[in-house]
Design a protein that fits this description.
By secondary structure, the chain is an alpha/beta fold. Helices cover 25% and strands 28% of the residues.
């Protein structure tokens, strides 16, 4: 945050650091053991904001529940541990569906081997314990009607604060385009692609706009606590004068070594971005990111939204999310596309 504020000041802005409260989450015990039909230790990881299991853990049969996005997926889970695949809807939706069907806990397995750093997004999202399980083990548990698991989670919450950094090209204008990127990363990795790439692109756009295009009405938002549940952007969107924001553009994960370039599906900005990429002969597609990044609170508030995403990333939410695994050429392409979006969509301030 200090670096971002210093760079904005160097570019000629007067950045504001705006604090907001949120509930911080930590876990101290995460244990899983499969006790039938074979016995083995399981790698489990509590989803952020999961409740604890009863002291000493719980033991129950595991019942598969598809992707867990519909209430009908959870037939026969009452009194058991529900098991759902990752994807298609929020973890909180899966957890609520599991609880409503009578499950005593929820396990979610990845679409590929390994764990993932996931969040329920809200301290009140799930009444039952919820954890991620290794993607290599999940399908095995799902196909066995005799899978039994012991699960123990000890989780803790406390009130805390974080900060957003906000900077405007003009103060007091009637209409403004907002562009944002989140500052934080998951605890398991340094977060170079997710999301230092978005932050550095946003800083460079802010510098160029200030120097060469001062007539553009742009507000830059650098968000805190995104990975824990979009807390920074939620805090801002809940208090901002949304009638003045003509749109919000989101920059999150811009340097994946992937042949795919994607724009957020829907909204008024996608078509112009697609044309931009196609004119440059670049392969481009659209992606439905749902509510998984900072555009979502603005979308919920009725602000038109759009965003850029560099495609699948093997080091997503992992310790290997380092500079060596970022494609700088892709970052250049998407940063240029983001700058095009700002130039195309920002209102012009007339003297």
């Amino acid at each position: 945050m200090d670096h971002v504020r210093a760079e904005l000041k160097r570019a000629g802005y007067s950045p504001r650091v705006v604090g907001f409260p949120f509930v911080e989450y930590r876990e101290s015990v995460e244990k899983g053991i499969q006790i039938a039909p074979i016995r083995r230790e399981l790698r489990v990881e509590a989803l952020d904001y999961s409740p604890s299991t009863p002291k000493g853990g719980l033991r129950a049969r595991v019942v598969a529940a598809g992707n867990g996005c519909e209430s009908g997926d959870f037939e026969g889970v009452r009194g058991f541990i529900a098991l759902a695949r990752r994807g298609a809807c929020f973890f909180a939706v899966k957890a609520r569906n599991a609880h409503n069907a009578g499950a005593i806990a929820l396990l979610v397995f990845n679409s590929e081997p390994g764990l993932f750093d996931g969040t329920l997004g809200d301290p009140r999202a799930s009444p039952i314990p919820a954890a991620a399980i290794d993607g290599a083990v999940g399908p095995e548990l799902a196909v066995s009607s005799s899978s039994m698991v012991e699960l123990e989670l000890a989780t803790h919450r406390r009130r805390s604060t974080s900060q957003n950094v906000i900077a405007d090209t003009h103060n007091g204008v009637r209409r403004v385009l907002m562009v944002g990127a989140h500052l934080d990363s998951v605890l398991v990795g340094p977060g170079i692609n997710d999301n230092a790439t978005g932050v550095v692109a946003l800083l460079e756009i802010a510098r160029v706009v200030r120097k060469r295009y001062p007539e553009l009405a742009v507000r830059f938002g650098f968000w805190g606590a995104e990975e824990l549940g979009l807390f920074g952007s939620r805090a801002y969107a809940s208090t901002a004068d949304r009638r003045r924001i003509v749109g919000y553009l989101n920059l999150d994960v811009l340097g994946s070594p992937s042949p795919e370039r994607t724009v957020y599906k829907g909204g008024p900005f996608a078509a112009r971005w697609l044309e931009h990429f196609e004119r440059r002969g670049l392969r481009v597609g659209q992606i439905d990111v749902g509510g998984r990044s900072d555009h979502f609170p603005f979308d919920q508030a009725g602000v038109p939204t759009g965003g850029l995403f560099a495609g699948g990333y093997p080091c997503y939410h992992r310790a290997c999310d380092r500079l060596a695994n970022v494609d700088l050429a892709v970052l250049d392409e998407l940063a240029a596309a983001a700058a095009f979006g700002v130039a195309s969509f920002a209102p012009i301030v007339r003297d």
